Amino acid sequence: MKSKIGLGKEEYLWAKNRMPILTNLVRKYSKNRILGDFNLGMCLHITKETAVLVMGLAEVGARISLCAANPLSSKENVSEFLRYHNSNVDIFVNRQDDIDSFYNNMDKVLDTNPQIVTDDGAELHKKAVYRDQSFVGGTEETTSGVNRLRRLSNEGLLSYPVIAVNESLMKQLLDNGHGTGQSTLEGIINTTGIIVASKRIVVCGYGWVGKGVARCARGLGAKVTITEVEPLKAMEAFFDGYEVDELEKLLSINDIFITCTGQINIIGREHFSKLKDGAILCNAGHFDVEIDVRYLDRIYPRHYEPKPNVTCYTVNDALGKSKRIYVMTKGRVVNLIGAEGNSPEVMDISFSNQFLAIVYLSKMSSKLANRVYKPPRKLDNKLARLALSRYKIRIDKLSQEQKDYFKK
Ligand code: ADE
Description:
By secondary structure, the protein is α/β, with parallel strands linked by helices. It has two domains: 4-171 and 342-390, Adenosylhomocysteinase-like (Rossmann fold, 3-Layer(aba) Sandwich), CATH 3.40.50.1480; 178-337, NAD(P)-binding Rossmann-like Domain (Rossmann fold, 3-Layer(aba) Sandwich), CATH 3.40.50. 44% of the residues lie in helices and 17% in strands. The strands form two sheets. Strands 9-8-7-10-11-14-13-12 form an eight-stranded mixed beta sheet, sandwiched between helices. Helix 2 (20-30) packs parallel to helix 3. The longest helix has 24 residues, at 169-192. The radius of gyration is 22 Å and the shape is globular. The model has no long low-confidence stretch (mean pLDDT 96). The chain binds adenine. Residues 44-45, 47, 49-50, 336, 341-342, 347 line the site of adenine (ADE).
């Protein structure tokens, strides 16, 4: 039988072969060890794609301490492989970690005195800014994390410049849109085995992730309705051909609810008893706050797991009739816990962005203020060109006459 380390290595190689943009960047920068002796503190979902990023950063000279961005999303074979395969990587995650050790691991990462902090959700940044340590800069992978960082920045608490990698257009289009859309449906299908065609699905929130989830669900034959609070996004959803309605009206007639908002209590105590028997609830947003699972656990302590990653609660409606409600992956990111997260092809782009942002900070941070920066459009264009060439796609060029016409 293969060891966990051996299995982790195979997964790493599988991903690496599908991440040529990042691999080429690593090859290019490893010659002069561009991050030579740089200390990086990272808090990411520990997946095969993250292993490709971390091993690549080590190859260009960095020392890395890594902890998990979610208590349930770490892939054990991958963490074992990283632990034993690279002496430049310290990994702070263990299978038996509870919620306290999950947060303690972040402190252990910061104890290694990283110069650059890379995060997915800003939990590590939130700890870093209160430390009596100086950081060169930081990067942030996800929408919820960037929102938190902007709040820290507005309160004057941000003590280093941060590149919001999440706000690269390439990242939003491909990772948040296509990547999370597909992996969310994968998570639901893997975990429940249900057929999506014919299901009535509600997608809460029509940002990049909601759009991707809705597109994939519709592509698989579901009847999709969107809920929104922003009029522009609601109109966009309507003109994209979806039904748009208030959540309250949809509770009793839909089969699956997918939260993609970043907000708290999207599906909360006032909703559970109005759902139909057998309704499935899952979350694609970063934090486990969108479905009020804490309330369900408290009020219905006799819940059970009919399948791994599915919790069944029996709730009574207003007439005293009991109904089963199924919550997936404890209300945490269904795409990373119920499935393997975004595909290596998608993470090739997201993590190339991370890689370039870290390299940029290692050189430029002294010229930056302590605030949140969008990645420069130049970086997006560079990445788009690298990606087009990876897919062997050619595009046209403006003629001189056309360039001159634009200048007029
Ligand atoms: N976020 C979404 N998908 C991911 C993956 N495959 N690896 C790391 N972070 C992710």
